[in-house]
């Protein structure tokens, strides 16, 4: 009596590129190469605008700026501001000045509006006196969002900082 033995092969005869696991394993390092290439392209093609070229001088200047903030607090300087859209597309910024008795209102106020991440959108303006303790200027369209405002007097003796949310 002869018994026949059947061989059951579990070997898959498809070519290697027809297996999903192969592509999965190739895809992991390939995606890392693609992501690294995109990161290198972004780093090379964009400017490092948030990094100061001379950080040491910037650090020393911080102390002088802090003195201006302290002077504003000592003199109880308060600036109330409003932004009004104009038909031309620009915006009118109006500021009402108040301070401790004996503090002379400045001839004008310097305004610096800084965008949190895009320094090419920063705006410098001079607010001229439009009435007693009132200052006004028109600036080009301010994009909606968060802005850091710094206002200084004409003699640069005090500085007031605020965060503005423009709609």
Assign the structural class, choosing from mainly alpha, mainly beta, alpha/beta, alpha+beta, or little secondary structure: alpha+beta
Low-pLDDT residue intervals, each spanning 5 or more residues: none
Distance between the termini: 94 Å
How many E strands?
Answer: 7
User: Domains counted in the coordinates: how many?
Assistant: 2
Overall morphology: elongated
Radius of gyration: 32 Å
CATH class of the largest domain: Mainly Beta
| SSE arrangement, N to C | HHEEEEEEE
Superfamily (CATH H level) name of the largest domain: Immunoglobulins
CATH topology of the largest domain: Immunoglobulin-like
What percent of the residues sit in helical stretches (DSSP H or I)? 25-40%
Proportion of residues in extended strands: 25-35%
Largest beta sheet: strand ordering: 1-2-5-4-3-6-7
What composes the largest sheet?
A: 7 strands, antiparallel
Q: Please name the CATH architecture of the largest domain.
A: Sandwich
Count of DSSP-assigned helices: 2
Average pLDDT rating: 86
